[in-house]
Each structure stands twice: as structure tokens, then as C-alpha cells.
Write a structure and sequence with these properties.
The complex is a heterodimer of chains A (282) and B (299). Chain A is built from 15 helices and no strands. Chain A has helices at 2-35, 39-42, 58-66, 68-99, 105-114, 120-133, 140-164, 169-176, 181-192, 194-210, 213-218, 227-234, 246-257, 260-266, 268-281. In chain A, helix 10 crosses helix 15. Chain A is mainly α and 282 residues long. By secondary structure, chain B is an all-alpha fold. Chain B has helices spanning 2-12, 14-44, 60-67, 69-100, 107-119, 122-132, 139-146, 160-188, 192-200, 205-232, 237-242, 254-264, 268-298. Chain B contains 13 helices and no strands. The chains are: A mainly alpha (282), B mainly alpha (299). At the A-B interface, helix 1, helix 4, helix 5, helix 6 and helix 7 of A face helix 2, helix 4, helix 5, helix 6 and helix 7 of B.
Chain lengths: 282, 299
């Protein structure tokens, strides 16, 4: 009796789990399927749930249309460069907050936390005007600076929590051996807190990869476009409704998503740790 | 004078100076990109500045703003969208978290799928849902037909009310697994003894959840609501990608309206005034939930 009830309960739970996971994966999965359809198949009504005659022909076509390799290089450069800069600068600040007792410490920390609540749109206008004046529009350095500033609170707070868990005796021992604060940070503290440093970089890299608004407004030339801004130019309303271009749209979407999939698989555990860490300590 | 001098000395004496050297690059960069733009936004909102220049006009923008029906509509929609999306994400996310905490198998698969919507860029979410919501024989329509919901084509994006619903569904999908991950961490950190004690006292599963788990999760729930509401209130990217604020102005959030005024019409003064409304709204929402969170942690 109890056995039967347990089996019923488990069956229901797994059915529910399957429904939830299907709902979560479906939009992405259907996009992946659509990208593998031919022009003929994508125009069929009702649509085929999965490609009957899967083809990869959309991928080389979109790669040419997009100047994919240049765009990919820009995206990696921007997300990676700003992620690295924010992680290093954030580590320095986190170390000072963790070990120091200096005037204005609480105020600076609070301002850094509070600045997370500022909507991007509110800061964007004056940044645009300033970039116009300082000739920073359409430049990589201008974009990297915006992204770095954007990732700063996360990089600082996340690493602050990791650094706090490291005993101060290590600092004292290093100081006795004649190491300065910078040496202590870069040679001792950061290597010990490497999981935290890595998670910080990872979260910032993904955030940079997915950013759209700043690149969209602060750059117009093809030389500084990234994957998400390219996505916009073919995306929504420009479909020719007699012959839909959903296959191309889906392929473009896969260009943005696919490079992140192996990263997601390899760093699942760290990502979950980082995500929950941010919310609990932020 | 000697007092002041010794204070200055103590601030810049080498023992402290190194901390300023460490903290200031990060701090100043962040402030240059947030505090200074906010001050400038306030100042520009008192002018009729465009790309060609402009002058101080006092509160004129705000007077126009108060009678601007697009702004009022946009404000109402932003509030509706924020409330519905944040509450929807929290409720469904909590449900998913509880489901996943039942020690089911396939953990790696469910973790991977949970992370997918989170890792999807907002603009990419718009593209994925563009495909689902395709109106000339799209997949959602076909699925509804299969399930026997009749033949009438749903105008997912071209009907005002439905388009609003469609954008909320997209946002909930995008963020619900993030919420679930936070709740899973929160549930995992609850003390097992309390739940076991309740079970010994004869409380059934539902009672344990309602009278024990839920009250203990209160701080986590307020935290999630705070973070989600503050994120949703400034939504731009995925709505811009999906509907561009349309049809008409049906899905035009405040951020989209600012964008239209500031970047498309290049009316810096008026766009900045709309931005101030957005900023104030964010502060109010943040303050309400921060207060609730603070109180729930006190007790």
C-alpha cells in the first residue's frame, strides 16, 4: 500500500519534472530545430516539430552574411577584456575592503552596492553624449570601459566574500616576509581564492557576451559590432511574410548561443555557485 | 591647523595609502559611469536640449510629462509588467525549486536545462520567442490546435492585450530558473530539525510547507522579489527585440520610451525627464522591498 503510494508519487513527480524541463528547453530547442530546416520546410504550415530533412546549409550562409568571425572576435575581445579588467580591479577593491580599515570605507562599499540598482538606461544618455564629445563612439576601448564599470559591483562583492574567508594570518606572514599588499594580493590571496576569481570572470564574461544595449547605442560601425547587435539587425519585423526567414533568424540565434553551450556544460557547478552566491551575499 | 595636517597625514600615510590605491580605480570607474551620468540626467532634464543644443527651461519638461498620455500609459504598463513578471517568476520559481529538491535523478540534465534560459541573452530570448509567436502558422498555434483549442489564430504579437501577455511569458521563462536556483539554495540552508519536528508532530506535507517552510523562506522570497522587480522595471532589451514596444505603444516600457525620445528623436531634455521617472520608480520599488526584507530578517 505504502509502496504503491510512493510509486504513484514518484511517477507524478517525474511527470511534473519532465513537463517543467520541456517548457524551459522548448523555446531554445525549437530554435535549434528551425535553424536546421531548409527554406521549403520552414515555410510549411503547420510547421514540422523537428526537421524532417535536416540541413546545415543555413550556417555557412549566415556566417558569410554576418561576417561571423570578425563579430565573434569582437564579442570575445569585449566580453573577455572587460571581464578580465573588472575581475582584477574588483579583486583589488575587494582586498582593500576585506583587509583595510580606512576612511570612507563603508561609504565607498555602500555606494558600490547601491550603484547596482541604477537602471542602465538612465546612465546611457549622458554616457552617449560624453562619448560623442570625447570621440569614444565606435571604439573598443570605450565599450570595454562601459562593460568594466558595469561588472565592477559584482566582481568586487563576489571576491570580497571569498577573500573574507581567507585567514588574515596569511597576510601577516607575508608581511613579515617583506611582501607588499599588491604582492600579497596577486601572489597569495588571489591564487587561494581562485575558484571565486574564476566564477567572477565567468559571470562577467557571460554578461558581456549577452550585452546588447550599450553596444547598440555606442557603436554603429561594423568593426565594433557584437553577436547580439547583429542578431537585432535581422531579427524581428523584417521578415518577408510570403517567404519567412525564420530559418535564418534561428541560425543567427544559434550563433549567439552555441559558443556558450560547452562553457555551460563544463562550468555548471561553478555557475550555480556563483549565481546563488550573488543573491545571498549581494 | 596642526590638527588638520595630522589628519591628512594619517589618511595618506603609507599604511593607509595602499588601500586607496587598491580601491580607487574600481570605485572611481564605477562612479564615473553611474553617479556622474545621474547628475547629468537631472541637469539635462531641466533643459530642452537636443543634438543641436538647448537651454534651461526649468520644470517645463515635467509639466509636459504630466499630460503626456504615452508616458502615463507606459508607466502603467511598466508597473503591470513588473508586478506580474516578478510575482509570476517568484511563484513558479518556488514551485520548481521545491520540485527539484525532492531528490529526483537526472540532476545534471535538469541543472543544464535550468541554466539554459539564464544564459540566453535577452535579445536572443526575443528571437527564440519571435519564432514561437510567428503568427502565420507558427508552432504555438499548431500546438494549441493539436491540443484541441480550436482553429482561431491567436495574434500573439499584433494584438495589444495578447502582445502584453506574450512579453510577460517570455520574461518569466527567461528568469524563472534563476529564481528557482536561488530558492534551492535557500531551501537547502533551512534547518532540517524544524521540518522533522513538524513531521513528528503529525503535520502533513502541505501543512509543513505552509506553516514551516514558507515562513522560514520569507527573507528569501522578499530578496527574490526585490532583485526581480528592480530588474524588470528597467526592462528594455527583450521587449525591444520582440515587439519594439508595439503594437502601438502597448508594450512600451519606460526604458523603451526613454530610448525613443533620447536616441531616436534625439530629444535629450525630454528623454532625460522620462529617465528621472524611471529612476524614481526604481528607487521606490527598491526601498519598499528593502524595507520588507529588513523587517523579515529582524523577526
Amino acid at each position: 500500500m505504502i509502496h504503491q503510494r510512493r510509486r504513484l508519487r514518484n511517477t507524478m513527480l517525474y511527470a511534473l519534472l519532465a513537463a517543467v524541463l520541456l517548457g524551459l528547453v522548448f523555446p531554445v530547442l525549437f530554435m535549434a530545430f528551425t535553424s536546421l530546416k531548409s527554406v521549403n520546410e520552414v515555410n510549411r504550415i503547420p510547421p514540422t516539430p523537428w526537421p524532417r530533412y535536416p540541413t546545415l546549409e543555413n550556417y555557412p550562409f549566415m556566417a558569410r552574411a554576418w561576417d561571423f568571425w570578425l563579430t565573434l572576435r569582437n564579442t570575445i575581445f569585449l566580453a573577455g577584456g572587460s571581464g578580465l579588467a573588472a575581475t582584477v580591479l574588483g579583486a583589488m577593491a575587494a582586498y582593500a575592503f576585506s583587509r583595510g580599515a580606512f576612511r570612507g570605507q563603508t561609504l565607498m562599499y555602500s555606494l558600490l552596492v547601491a550603484s547596482m540598482a541604477v537602471p542602465a538606461m538612465v546612465t546611457l544618455g549622458p554616457i552617449f553624449i560624453a562619448y560623442l564629445q570625447f570621440n569614444l563612439l565606435d571604439t573598443h576601448i570605450g565599450l570595454i570601459l562601459v562593460f568594466t564599470a558595469g561588472g565592477m559591483p559584482l566582481a568586487t562583492l563576489l571576491q570580497f566574500a571569498y577573500f573574507n574567508a581567507i585567514p588574515r594570518e596569511l597576510d601577516d606572514a607575508a608581511a613579515i616576509d617583506g611582501a607588499g599588499r599588491f604582492t600579497t594580493l596577486f601572489r597569495i590571496i588571489m591564487p587561494i581564492a581562485m575558484p571565486g576569481v574564476f566564477v567572477s570572470f565567468l559571470l562577467l564574461f557571460i554578461a558581456g557576451w549577452n550585452e546588447f544595449l550599450f553596444v547598440f547605442t555606442l557603436s554603429t560601425s561594423p568593426d565594433t559590432q557584437v553577436l547580439t547587435t547583429k542578431l537585432y539587425t535581422i531579427a524581428p519585423r523584417e521578415a518577408d511574410y510570403n517567404s519567412s526567414n525564420l530559418d535564418l533568424v534561428a541560425t543567427a540565434g544559434m550563433f549567439v548561443l552555441l559558443p556558450l553551450v560547452p562553457l555551460l556544460m563544463l562550468t555548471q557547478r561553478q555557475l550555480v555557485e556563483g549565481i546563488t552566491f550573488c543573491a545571498v551575499h549581494g | 591647523m596642526p590638527m588638520a595636517q595630522s589628519r591628512l597625514q594619517s589618511i595618506f600615510s603609507s599604511r593607509y595609502a595602499v588601500f586607496y590605491v587598491l580601491v580607487l580605480p574600481a570605485f572611481l570607474l564605477r562612479m564615473i559611469y553611474t553617479v556622474i551620468p545621474i547628475i547629468q540626467t537631472v541637469l539635462i532634464s531641466f533643459t530642452n536640449r537636443t543634438i543641436l543644443g538647448g537651454q534651461y527651461i526649468g520644470l517645463r519638461n515635467y509639466e509636459v510629462l504630466a499630460k503626456d498620455s504615452t508616458l502615463i500609459g507606459s508607466l502603467g504598463w511598466t508597473l503591470l509588467y513588473t508586478a506580474t513578471a516578478a510575482v509570476g517568476e517568484t511563484v513558479i520559481g518556488l514551485g520548481i525549486a521545491i520540485l527539484l529538491m525532492q531528490n529526483l535523478r537526472l540532476r545534471w540534465l535538469s541543472n543544464f536545462i535550468m541554466l539554459l534560459p539564464w544564459v540566453v541573452a535577452p535579445m536572443l530570448a526575443a528571437v527564440a520567442f519571435q519564432i514561437l509567436y510567428f503568427e502565420d502558422g507558427g508552432i504555438l498555434h499548431a500546438i494549441l490546435q493539436e491540443l484541441g483549442f480550436g482553429n482561431a489564430a491567436v495574434r500573439w504579437l499584433s494584438d495589444a492585450e495578447t502582445a502584453r501577455f506574450s512579453t510577460i511569458v517570455m520574461t518569466v521563462w527567461k528568469n524563472v530558473s534563476w529564481v528557482a536556483l536561488i530558492f534551492m539554495a535557500a531551501i537547502g540552508s533551512l534547518s532540517k530539525e524544524v521540518l522533522e519536528a513538524a513531521a513528528v508532530d503529525g503535520a502533513n506535507t502541505l501543512q509543513r510547507f505552509w506553516y514551516v517552510t514558507l515562513p522560514l523562506l520569507k527573507p528569501a522570497i522578499y530578496l527574490v522579489l526585490l532583485l526581480r522587480a528592480m530588474a524588470e522595471v528597467q526592462t528594455f532589451e527583450q521587449i525591444y527585440g520582440l515587439t519594439r514596444g508595439g503594437p502601438g505603444s502597448a508594450t512600451k516600457t519606460l526604458a523603451l520610451y526613454t530610448f525613443e525620445r533620447f536616441f531616436q528623436q534625439l530629444r535629450y531634455g525630454y528623454g532625460s525627464a522620462v529617465n528621472i521617472v524611471l529612476l524614481l520608480l526604481t528607487i521606490v520599488i527598491g526601498a519598499i522591498f528593502a524595507w520588507l526584507l529588513y523587517r523579515s530578517r529582524e523577526i
